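User: Can you recover a sequence for this backbone? Please restate the input before giving your answer.

Assistant: Of course. Working from this structure:
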C-alpha cells in the first residue's frame, strides 16, 4: 500500500475510534428521549385508553351502573395527591401483614411487579389494614414514572408526597403517612384479583381517575362502557348551555333525559 493511502486509512481508523463513543452516546440519549412505547396489547387497546382519558369519570361510573347494575367506584377515602386525570391497565399487588419479620426479600415481589409493568399501566396496591402504612413512596413512584405508568392507586398510605408532586406522578391513596412497610408486611402476590377500597380489580382492568375519584372498568366490558359514557358525557355537556338559555334544569332533563 502506498504510504499516503496507508496514512489515510490510519486517520480513518482513528476517526472511527473517536466517533464510535460519540455516536453511541447520541443513540443512548435519543432512545431515552423517546416517549414510552404503547401497550403491547395493540392499537385497539391504545385507542380504548385514549377514549377513557377524554371522558369524565362520573360518566364512566354512571355507565357501569346502567350496564352492569353495580358500583365500581372507590369511596371518598381515596384521595388524590394532586388534581390529575389518567387511565391505564391495572397492575395489581397485594401486601399481607407480617409483623416483625426480618426477611430482606419479603417485599421483593412488589418491586419486581413494578419493573415488569408496561407503559400506560396503573399500579393498584392493596395494603392489608394499611391506612397508617405507606404502601409506596418516592422511589417506587420514580420507577413507575420512568416506565411510563399512568398513575397509582394505593389502598393504604403514601409518603414522600413532596417528591411525587415534584415529578408530577399522580397517586390516589388513603392519606399521607411517614411509616414504612419494611418488617411489617410481606408481598402476597401480583396481578391477582384484589379488592381495592371495596372495588374488585383484576390485572388488565381499566382504572380511570379524575378530580371526582377512581373507577374500575372490567376489561371484558370496556368498549361497551366507554361508548355509553361518551353518550352520557355528550348529553351532559349539551345541557349546560340549554339550562343557561332557558334557565330551567327541569326542561333540560326532559329534553336530554340525563341528570
Amino acid at each position: 500500500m502506498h504510504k499516503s493511502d496507508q496514512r489515510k486509512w490510519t486517520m480513518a481508523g482513528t476517526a472511527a475510534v473517536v466517533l464510535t463513543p460519540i455516536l453511541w452516546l447520541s443513540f443512548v440519549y435519543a432512545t431515552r428521549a423517546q416517549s414510552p412505547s404503547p401497550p403491547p396489547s395493540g392499537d385497539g387497546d391504545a385507542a380504548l385508553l385514549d377514549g377513557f382519558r377524554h371522558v369524565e369519570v362520573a360518566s364512566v361510573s354512571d355507565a357501569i351502573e346502567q350496564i352492569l347494575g353495580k358500583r365500581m367506584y372507590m369511596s371518598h377515602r381515596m384521595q388524590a395527591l394532586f388534581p390529575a386525570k389518567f387511565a391505564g391497565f391495572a397492575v395489581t399487588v397485594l401486601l399481607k401483614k407480617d409483623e416483625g419479620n426480618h426477611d430482606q426479600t419479603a417485599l421483593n415481589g412488589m418491586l419486581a411487579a413494578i419493573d415488569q409493568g408496561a407503559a400506560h399501566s396503573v399500579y393498584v396496591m392493596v395494603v392489608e389494614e394499611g391506612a397508617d402504612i405507606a404502601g409506596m413512596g418516592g422511589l417506587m413512584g420514580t420507577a413507575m414514572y420512568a416506565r411510563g405508568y399512568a398513575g397509582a392507586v394505593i389502598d393504604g398510605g403514601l409518603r414522600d408526597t413532596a417528591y411525587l408532586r415534584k415529578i408530577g406522578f399522580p397517586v390516589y391513596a388513603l392519606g399521607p403517612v411517614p411509616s414504612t412497610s419494611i418488617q411489617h408486611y410481606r408481598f402476597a402476590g401480583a396481578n391477582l384479583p384484589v379488592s381495592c377500597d371495596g372495588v374488585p380489580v383484576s390485572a388488565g382492568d381499566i382504572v380511570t381517575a379524575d378530580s371526582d375519584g377512581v373507577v374500575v372498568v372490567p376489561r371484558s366490558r370496556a368498549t361497551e362502557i366507554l361508548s355509553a359514557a361518551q353518550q352520557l358525557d355528550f348529553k351532559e355537556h349539551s345541557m349546560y348551555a340549554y339550562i343557561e338559555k332557558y334557565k330551567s334544569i327541569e326542561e333540560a332533563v326532559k329534553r336530554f333525559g340525563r341528570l
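That completes the design. The longest helix spans residues 3-33.
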